Structure to design on (135 residues):
């Protein structure tokens, strides 16, 4: 009888300690836009704004409070760094709204490729544009 009781206790211990539901929390944190990102590509280039004209890539820091701090390198000023602050918000339908300095506010979708890369798909003057960001 003690064997069965011991076996039942071992089974119960295994049953209660085998799984937890907090394993999925890492994916949400992993795919968070809140971080500092480097803009590595704009396809196609936006008329009047081509970040590839300077050797340094623009950077953006998305803060949890909705601020978006940009550092853009201005090719018309010997690629000097220019800082600008905008904002961002994740909308209820899964789209994002971002303010891009000197261009305005844009709605689009964010697609993560792991923890270190995402694309922002939007349109500028009815032209579809994809901005690629990396950590």
């Amino acid at each position: 009888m003690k064997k069965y009781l011991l076996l039942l206790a071992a089974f119960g211990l295994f049953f209660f300690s085998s799984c937890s539901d907090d394993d999925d929390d890492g994916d949400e944190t992993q795919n968070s836009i809140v971080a500092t990102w480097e803009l590595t590509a704009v396809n196609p280039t936006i008329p009047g704004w081509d970040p590839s004209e300077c050797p340094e890539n623009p950077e953006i820091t998305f803060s949890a409070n909705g601020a978006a701090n940009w550092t853009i390198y201005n090719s018309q000023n010997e690629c000097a760094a220019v800082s600008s602050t905008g904002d961002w918000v994740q909308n209820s339908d899964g789209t994002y709204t971002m303010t891009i300095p000197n261009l305005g506010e844009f709605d689009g979708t964010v697609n993560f490729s792991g923890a270190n890369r995402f694309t922002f798909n939007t349109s500028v003057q009815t032209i579809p544009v994809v901005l690629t960001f990396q950590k």
Q: What stands out?
A: The chain has one domain: 25-134. Confidence is low (pLDDT under 50) at residues 1-29.
